[in-house]
Amino acid sequence: MMQAKKHTKTHSTYAFESNTNSVAASQMRNALNKLADSVKDEDTRSKFEGELDSFFSLFRRYLVEKASGSTLEWDKIKSPNPEEVVDFSVIEQQPENVSNLSKLAVLKLNGGLGTSMGCVGPKSVIEVRDGNTFLDLSVRQIEYLNRQYDSDVPLLLMNSFNTDADTAHLIKKYSANRIRIRSFNQSKFPRVYKDSMLPVPSSYNDELDSWYPPGHGDLFESLHASGELDALIAQGREILFVSNGDNLGATVDLKILNHMIETGAEYIMELTDKTRADVKGGTLISYDGQVRLLEVAQVPKEHVDEFKNIRKFKNFNTNNLWINLKAVKKLVESSSLEMEIIPNQKTINRGGHEINVLQLETACGAAIRHFQGAHGVVVPRSRFLPVKTCSDLLLVKSDLFCLEHGALKLDPSRFGPNPLIKLGSHFKKVSGFHARIPHIPKIVELDHLTITGNVFLGKGVTLKGTVIIVCSEGQRIDIPNGSVLENVVITGNLQILEH
Fold it and tell me: What does the entry list as the binding residues for substrate (predicted)?
C-alpha cells in the first residue's frame, strides 16, 4: 500500500514536503553556524567548520531521500555477471609481482570501542591470541611483509574521537619496529534530536555523547581532509587496502593486488560465501548496468526472506576493500561520492530521561558504484575472520588456528567450515568469558557449540561434533578437567566438587 501511495502524491504534497525540508535545513544550518561560533581557536574552527559542512550536506540529502521515499526497484536487481564478480581461483593462477608492493598502503578501521564486549577503550587493544591485541597482530603482519619482501608498506589507522588519544599512546611501542604507522581521525558529527531534527550539542565542548563518528563511509573525506591522501600519492602509493581492525583474516594478498593493477580497476570488494551466520550480510548486485552493494536495510520487507536465501545471494561483503587513491582524490574533490545513508537510532540520557536521537552514517562498501571498473572477488572464507563477540573470541583463541607472523592459519586437519559457536549472556563480556572458560577447549573436530547459563569449562576439555550445554537459571554446570564431549546435550545442574 505504501508504494502505491508514492505514485499518487499530488503536486501540493510535494510542495509541502519541499517547504518542510527547506525549513528543517534552514534551522539546522543556523544551529550549525552557532556551533561553529563556539570555537575560538582559528585552526580548530577551520577544521570543525569543514566537518559541519560535510554533516550538513549529509543531513540535507537525508531530508530529500526521506521525502521522496526513493528505494531500489526489486525487479531491476540482477545477479552480477562474470566481469562484475570474479572467483579467486582465476586470480590465484596469475604470477606474483612483488614490486607492486611499492604502490600499496594498508589501512585499518580503528574507530570502534570494545564496549560491546565489556571492555574500556579501543577495541583494537583487546587481547585476542597469545598475548597479542588486534593492533599487535596488524603490526606484526605488515612488519613481516616488509621484512620478507624488503618493502616499505605503511600502515594507517583511521581512529575516531573515541579511540584517538589511546591509540596515539599505544603506537609509541612500535617505534623500533620495521613499519611506518600513521593515524588520523575520522569526522566528528553532531547527533540530532529525533523530534526537533536539531543538533544535540550547542557547543564544541559539549559532552561526548552529543557526537558520533559517522561510519566508515567517512573514510574518503577524512583521508583527504587529514592530508594523508595527498601524502600517500606523493610517495607513489596507488592502492589502499582497507579492512576492519577486528578482521584477523584480512592480510595483504599479492594476487589481488596484482589483479587490481593489471585490470585497472579503481575498486575491488572481497566477497566470501554466505553461511547460516551471514544471511544478513550485504551483497553485490547489478542494477541499471552498474555494480552496487545491496544491504538488508534496503530490501523491501516482502523480499527479506529472498535476500537471506543463500542460493540466490551466494556471497557477502567482507569489507576488505582495495581502492585506487587517485580515484578517491578525484571523487572527493568533485563531491561525487554519495553513499546510501544509514539512519541509526540511539538514546542518550539528559536529566534522568532517555531521549531519542539520530545519527546519519554511511558505509565505504556502498561507494563501489562510483568507481570505474569496480568489481568483487570471491575469496576463501579464511580471509574473513572477524571478532565481534566472545563466541568469535573462542574460535580465534582455539587450536583450530595457529599464529604465524601475526596471521592466523587454519589447522590443516580441519575438515569443512568453521564451527558455529553460540555463547549465552553469561559470556557476553570478556571478563565473564575468561572467568568461565579460563582454558580454551580443543575444537578441531567441533561442528556446533551452544552454551547458555552459568557454565564453567575445566582444563584440557575437548569438544567434538555438536555440543549443547544449557544450565538452568540459578544453577551451575562445571565441565571437569580432561572431559571429552562428543555429540551430547547437557542440561540442568552439574556440580563437580573435586577441583
Answer: 216
